[in-house]
Amino acid sequence: MVFGKLINGLAGNFSEQNKETLMKEYGQYLLENEEIQIGYKLIRDAIIFTNIRIIFTDKQGATGKKVSVKSIFLMNIVNVELETAGVGIDDSEMTITYLENVFLKAHREHSNSLKFEFPKKSDLVPLYTYLLELAYQNRLRINGLDH
After folding, report:
1. How far apart are the C-alpha atoms of 141 and 131, rounded to whole Å?
2. Which residues contact 143 (CB under 8 A, 6 or more apart)?
3. Which domains does the chain have, with CATH numbers?
C-alpha cells in the first residue's frame, strides 16, 4: 500500500488522505470555523478542500521544514473541468479556474487555472459536482443574478 502511494506520488498523482491525518498536519493553517472536507497528498505536498477554500501546501528543501501555503477561496471559483481516466496508464485530471482579484468588477477580472492529476482509481465525480455547483452559484452572485 505504501509503495503504491509512493509510485502515484512519483507519477505526479495526489492520493486521498483521511481527515484526522490532515487535521494533525495542517490544522494550524485553518481559519476559525473552517473544516477540512477532503484532502490529497503528493509525497510531501498537499491539496486540502475545506468549507471555505482550497489550501495548497508545498514542503520545500531537503528537510521539508520550509512550507509554502497558498489558497483559492471557494467564492472565487468560476469553472471546473474533469477528465476521467481512460484505458491504460491515463490518470484523471481536474482543472479549476478561479478569479484572482478581490473586488469582482466587470471588465477587471483576472483569472488563473490550476490542473491536478489524480490516480485513475480516484472517484472525482462528487468533488467535481460540488465545485461545479460552487462555480455556478459564484457566477450568479458575481453577475447579480442570485436574487
Report:
1. 15
2. none
3. 2-142 (2.30.29.50)
Separation between Cα atoms, residue 53 and residue 62, nearest integer Å? 28
Residues 6 or more apart from 12 whose CB is under 8 A from it? 42, 91, 117
- Residue 45 has a CB neighbour count (10 Å cut-off) of 17
Cell of 41: 497528498
**Listing from the earlier edge strand, what are the strands of the sheet with 15-17?**
15-17, 36-42, 45-50, 53-60, 66-73
pLDDT string in tens for the chain (147-residue length) = 343 443 344 445 667 788 999 999 899 999 999 999 988 887 778 889 999 999 988 888 777 678 889 999 999 999 999 998 776 667 788 899 999 877 766 567 788 898 888 777 777 888 889 899 999 999 898 888 876
**Set of cell numbers at residue 138:** 459564484
Among candidate residues 117, 127, 17, 112, the one with its CA nearest the CA of residue 71: 112
Q: How many residues are recorded in the chain? A: 147
